[in-house]
Amino acid sequence: MEKYYEKELLEELHDIQETYGFISEEDILRISEKRDIPKAHLYGVISFYSMFHLKPTGKYIIKVCDSVSCSLNHSADIVKVIKEHLGIGENETTRDKKFSLEVVECLGHCDEGPVMIINDTYYTHLTTNKVVQILENLD
């Protein structure tokens, strides 16, 4: 696929994600037919970019880094306290659709771990107490 068309595809996917919070099977089928792109290619693009989701997500999307450097700084403890505090597992959303939790490979702040991002805000040098405070301060 030409880069020009790839850019248009990404823009269309971004618009859908922005409008509905996720990209549905119906959206994928419609784009596949309209652009004559195999559905497998669309799923590949969507799964490659972490900003795209195939199911509804919470108002706050929490991404916790689990790269080697964050792992050495106890990112597993951060994930555990989030799961316990919110009552959800990885790749799940709270019943009230307020929070979704994802564990990701790298957030690019390797010297400040453990690190998480909630929507567009980065939190570094995390402790379990700090994480609970952050979560409780979100409306």
What keywords describe this structure?
139 residues, 2 domains, metal ion binding, iron-sulfur, oxidoreductase activity, 47% helix, metal-binding, 5 strands, 6 helices, Glutaredoxin, NuoE_N
N-to-C span: 43 Å
Structural class: alpha+beta
Range of helix content: 40-55%
Note the total helix count: 6
Cα radius of gyration in angstroms? 17 Å
Largest sheet geometry: 5 strands, mixed
Count of discrete structural domains:
2
Average pLDDT taken over every residue? 91
Strand order of the largest sheet: 2-3-1-4-5
CATH class of the largest domain: Alpha Beta
Shape type: elongated
Name the CATH superfamily assignment of the largest domain.
Glutaredoxin
| Helix and strand pattern | HHHEHHEEEEH
CATH topology of the largest domain: Glutaredoxin
Please mark out the parts with pLDDT under 50 across 5 or more consecutive residues, or reply none: none
Looking at the overall shape, the CATH architecture of the largest domain is: 3-Layer(aba) Sandwich
Structure description:
The chain has 139 residues and is an alpha+beta fold. It has two domains: 3-48; 60-136, 3-Layer(aba) Sandwich (Glutaredoxin). The protein has six helices and five strands; from the N terminus they run αααβααββββα. It has helices spanning 3-20, 25-35, 39-48, 68-72, 75-86, 128-136; strands spanning 60-65, 92-93, 99-104, 116-118, 121-123. β2 (92-93) and β3 (99-104) form a beta hairpin. It is elongated, with a radius of gyration of 17 Å. The termini are far apart. The mean pLDDT is 91. Its cofactor is [2Fe-2S] cluster. Pfam families: 2Fe-2S_thioredx (PF01257). InterPro entries: NADP_DH_HndA-like (IPR028431), NuoE-like (IPR002023), NuoE_dom (IPR042128), NuoE_N (IPR041921), Thioredoxin-like_sf (IPR036249). GO terms for molecular function: 2 iron, 2 sulfur cluster binding; metal ion binding; oxidoreductase activity.
